[in-house]
Design brief:
The chain is built from 4 helices and 6 strands. It has 133 residues and is of the alpha/beta class. Strands 1, 2, 3, 4, 5 and 6 form a 6-stranded mixed β-sheet that branches. Strand 4 and strand 5 form a beta hairpin. 26% of the residues are buried.
């Protein structure tokens, strides 16, 4: 998430960002992995480099032509963050794409492999922070 934040920090104007549901591939999909898109939204709600689009979470059915960019445009976003999560044993590979609404092109990609328990720890930290607000 910090890498995507750095990408947006180089822009002259704060972009409106929407988040497309992350897909999960292969094997059993622990419910904790389904929360990754929510975790991105939580992160970006506190990030000073971006603002979340009015309706930040995009339903796949909201696109006229099936494209992620089209769905983001309907939400008033300049960029959409989309991702894929692939559980591999005790690890999780997370691929994140930043898609420009203007060009419908992928402007940046990130990939990171993390241990499943670290994903759970991040979400637990989020829950602790929310309970203190």
């Amino acid at each position: 998430m910090n890498l995507t934040s750095e990408y947006f920090s180089t822009m002259a104007v704060k972009p409106d960002v929407a988040i497309y549901p992350f897909t999960i591939s292969g094997g059993t999909n622990p419910p904790i992995l389904l929360l990754l898109a929510d975790d991105f939204a939580y992160f970006y709600s506190k990030d000073k480099n971006v603002k979340l689009a009015k309706r930040w979470f995009i339903e796949p059915s909201e696109s006229d032509d099936g494209s992620i960019a089209n769905a983001g445009k309907r939400q008033g976003a300049n960029y959409v963050i989309a991702g894929k999560v692939i559980p591999i044993g005790e690890q999780v590979r997370v691929s994140v794409l930043i898609i420009s609404i203007e060009t419908s092109e992928i402007t940046e990609t990130y990939m990171q492999t993390i241990i499943k328990s670290e994903v759970e720890d991040l979400l637990i930290e989020k829950q602790k922070e929310e309970s203190h607000e």
